[in-house]
Design goal:
Immunoglobulin-like, 3 domains, extended
Length: 411
């Protein structure tokens, strides 16, 4: 048998291995030369050169934005003119804002400027039953905050799920009325017990509805000689014997310093609609009154106020609606005066006021008027003219500087 030389035998053994490696390299070359779904040809290159796109989900390089242009450097003259141009704009804004906000007199304002005064205070609130009862909330309401003379105020207490608002059963098992802790002479009067009920009697509207009600008449329940803030503390027991408490505060005046007579006199004077409320003043001093006006449809329109000295005796509280406000807002007549309240202001001491028994609800309905009977003039006063003059000086000064810079040939 003829033997193959050793060198030839090794060549025969290596030949398949070389051919296999060459085939693999050729396949890789062909694969790289064919663009896949994530590859695109690069501009300005040969067809063999390709730009790879990262696979989906991989971060991509941000697109090149427009070339950055540095802000121009202002000359000293340009910077000065820009400064005075800005000052002129601010001065004009201040002047226009002040003029617009003082078009109407302080005593006659659009009611949207006083959203918290559209209706007299009758607060409602919601608070946790206690620190350990995080799922139970108290739903609290009182009819009024200011109580005068023989008036009665009702308090309402209910429980609900703090997260869903679903009503929960509970019971107000104790309550007392006393001077508020912040009063100067607090603690000198004995607390008076109050009773909450859910029986449909004694001030409660519906039996078993889960709303506990108490009626409180301070003048007949131990506080006939008191003036100031009274507090009603109460304790509540809810499901699973969970317990907590809260309180209500009222401002009480036993003997009002003045009383409305119920008479209202109406007139068009000086281009404005004036309403004079009859008042019997028992104690002279500075009185503050507020009233609300709705249009014919009951839409709140104006907030009127009075703040001035009144002498003892039969007096009138002068309220008026600005003629310009009537022109600007154009409400439907007749107008309805409602919810008048006020107090005698004390210069010092606590409390700082003595309440006048309010006139709740509708007080007076005006006649029907055409707008041509009212003035379009803006309200004016010495103070307003002085402020307008000062703001006008600021505008003129800024304008003069700009004109001087332009006249000097500033670029």
């Amino acid at each position: 048998m003829k033997h193959t030389p050793r060198r030839n035998r090794w060549s025969l053994l290596l030949l398949p291995l070389v051919l296999g490696i060459g085939g693999v390299l050729l396949s890789l070359t062909l694969f790289r030369s064919t663009p896949g779904p994530d590859e695109v040809p690069s501009r300005g290159s040969s067809s063999a050169a390709r730009a790879e796109v990262p696979p989906p989900g991989a971060p991509r390089a941000p697109k090149a934005g427009p070339p950055r242009v540095d802000a121009p450097v202002l000359s000293a003259a340009e910077a000065e003119r820009a400064l005075w141009r800005e000052r002129l704009e601010r001065a004009r804004f201040s002047l226009d804002s002040y003029r617009s906000s003082t078009r109407y007199p302080p005593e006659s304002r659009p009611i949207e400027e006083h959203p918290d005064q559209v209706y007299p205070a009758s607060p409602e609130r919601r608070q946790p039953l206690g620190k350990e009862q995080g799922d139970i909330a108290l739903r609290l309401k009182q009819e009024k905050v200011f109580v005068v003379g023989e008036e009665v105020v009702r308090f309402f207490v209910g429980c609900e799920n703090r997260h869903t608002g679903q009503p929960l059963s509970c019971e107000v098992h104790s309550a007392t009325a006393h001077e508020a802790p912040h009063m100067e002479l607090a603690g000198q009067m004995a607390p008076m017990p109050l009773t909450f009920n859910d029986s449909g009697h004694s001030g409660d509207d519906v039996a078993g509805d889960g709303q506990w009600t108490a009626s409180f008449q301070p003048a007949r329940q131990g506080f006939a000689m008191f003036e100031g803030t009274l507090r009603v503390d109460f304790r509540v027991r809810a499901q699973n014997n969970a317990e907590g408490g809260a309180f209500f505060d009222i401002m009480f005046t036993a003997a009002p310093p003045a009383t409305f007579t119920g008479k209202v006199r109406e007139a068009v004077e000086g281009g404005h609609l004036r309403l004079y409320l009859g008042l019997q003043v028992r104690k002279a001093g500075r009185y503050v009154f507020a009233a609300r006006v709705d249009d014919e449809a009951g839409v709140p329109f104006a907030y009127l106020n009075f703040n001035d000295e009144l002498q003892a005796g039969t007096r009138e509280v002068p309220l008026y609606i600005s003629g310009l406000q009537l022109h600007d807002k154009n409400p439907d007549f007749p107008l309805r005066l409602r919810d008048v309240d006020g107090f005698l202001l004390h210069e010092r001491g606590d409390p700082d006021r003595s309440l006048v028994k309010p006139l709740p609800g509708l007080v007076h309905t005006t006649g029907a008027y055409t707008l041509d009977r009212f003035s379009r003039d803006e309200w004016t006063s010495e103070e307003r003219e002085r402020y307008l003059a000062e703001f006008g000086k600021d505008v003129a000064e800024a304008q003069q500087h700009l004109d001087a810079l332009a006249g000097a040939g500033a670029p």
